[in-house]
Design a protein that fits this description.
Elements lengths: L1 H9 L2 H19 L6 H7 L4 H15 L7 H17 L5 H26 L3 H20 L10 E2 L3 H8 L1 E2 L2 E2 H18 L2 H11 L1 H6 L4 H27 L1 E2 L8 H10 L11 H20 L8 H19 L1 H15 L1
Antiparallel strand pairs: 1-4, 2-3
Helix pairs in contact: 2-14, 4-9, 4-10, 4-12, 4-13, 4-14, 5-6, 5-7, 5-12, 6-7, 6-12, 8-12, 9-10, 10-12, 13-14, 13-15
């Protein structure tokens, strides 16, 4: 019994991700010894914190059987809206932060409404949202006294510390990510709301017959995703010290890859926050390590694309009972 339990834990998807992460650290450390410096490793999260934060809550969307490819656009809209609200509208920076998060929630609610209440495919809705929110971000730039090229800078030091400060020697961004992992885990795996999210993905009709308000649950997952994109946009603006409308435009592929690689089924009904968090770190470390190894940034989407295809293929094969039985028999036959 204990051996079976140990085998189950060792074969968990998350264990494989940890193995991949450790392998990355060793390989990139060999290619560039500077990579192994604690300061460098801890500082590297600044380059992929947005992927980590957003993917946690896009996981909720995919578990319901949906899709969200608009988060990157919400990052840019949040960033430039924050800057305009603070610089041109004269709001206190922390009031502007709250409004910016509400903007993200509203963007998610709009897309979530169309997905949940009209039955339009999530891919179509969020693709439209991607273009819509990118366009709105450019429109907001016209309300600013600064040009789109310059961005909006000059923020108070207290705001800059969100992305550049530390807490007990740990970068604030790492602390925020840790808090969001705990929040997301509790919400998804320890509450009735989380169970409803899974039920919506497993069998929406059965969930409705059970009295679950599936439309509102589905809509709420897009709101959470939009809010997480806003939080990422705020942190990115703080770290860079500049609000720009084009922030986040390259995040869609890494975010979806992190969610799928983390073990969340693209068909819905299966997934977890811890797996997504580990996968996001794996992707982030890969991107950072490849750059330190000398790879040009314009080629970083290639390994991410390969990861996405491999992850989807692996999960598909793993869920095919007949195929797995055939592989098992073949393996046993060879051993014999």
């Amino acid at each position: 019994m204990h051996k079976l339990l140990l085998k189950h834990k060792l074969l968990r998807w998350e264990s494989g991700l940890i193995a991949i992460l450790l392998s990355e650290i060793v390989i990139f450390g060999i290619l560039n010894p500077k990579f192994l410096q604690t300061r460098v490793l801890m500082g590297s999260i600044n380059d992929f914190i947005s992927i980590c934060i957003i993917s946690l809550f896009v996981t909720f969307v995919l578990i319901t059987g949906g899709m969200d490819i608009q988060a990157g656009s919400i990052v840019g809209l949040t960033s430039i809206s924050l800057g305009v609200l603070w610089q041109d509208a004269g709001l206190n920076i922390w009031t502007a932060v709250v409004v910016a998060i509400l903007i993200g929630a509203l963007c998610g609610a709009i897309s979530g409404f169309f997905v949940a209440f009209t039955g339009v495919q999530a891919m179509v809705v969020t693709l439209g949202g991607q273009f819509l929110y990118s366009g709105l971000a450019l429109a907001v730039v016209n309300l600013s006294s600064s040009t789109a090229f310059e961005g909006i800078s000059g923020y108070p030091k207290s705001f800059i510390m969100i992305g550049s400060g530390t807490f007990l020697g740990i970068p604030n961004q790492v602390v925020i990510f840790g808090v969001l992992i705990i929040l997301g885990y509790v919400l998804l795996h320890k509450t009735n709301y989380g169970r409803y999210v899974f039920l919506c993905g497993i069998n929406k009709k059965a969930a409705e017959y059970s009295g679950i308000r599936t439309k509102w649950i589905i809509m709420s997952t897009y709101m959470l995703s939009g809010m997480s994109a806003s939080v990422a946009g705020i942190i990115l603006t703080s770290y860079l010290g500049s609000a720009r409308a084009d922030l986040g435009k390259e995040l869609t592929l890494p975010i979806i890859t992190a969610v799928v690689l983390g073990g969340t089924s693209n068909l819905g009904g299966k997934g977890g926050v811890i797996g997504t968090a580990l996968a996001a770190i794996v992707i982030g470390i890969m991107r950072f390590g490849l750059v330190m190894a000398g790879l040009s940034t314009q080629y970083l989407d290639i390994p991410i694309g390969v990861l996405l295809v491999v992850a989807v293929a692996t999960r598909t094969v793993g869920s095919n009972t007949k195929l797995m039985k055939a592989i098992s028999k073949r393996f046993k036959f060879k051993n014999a």
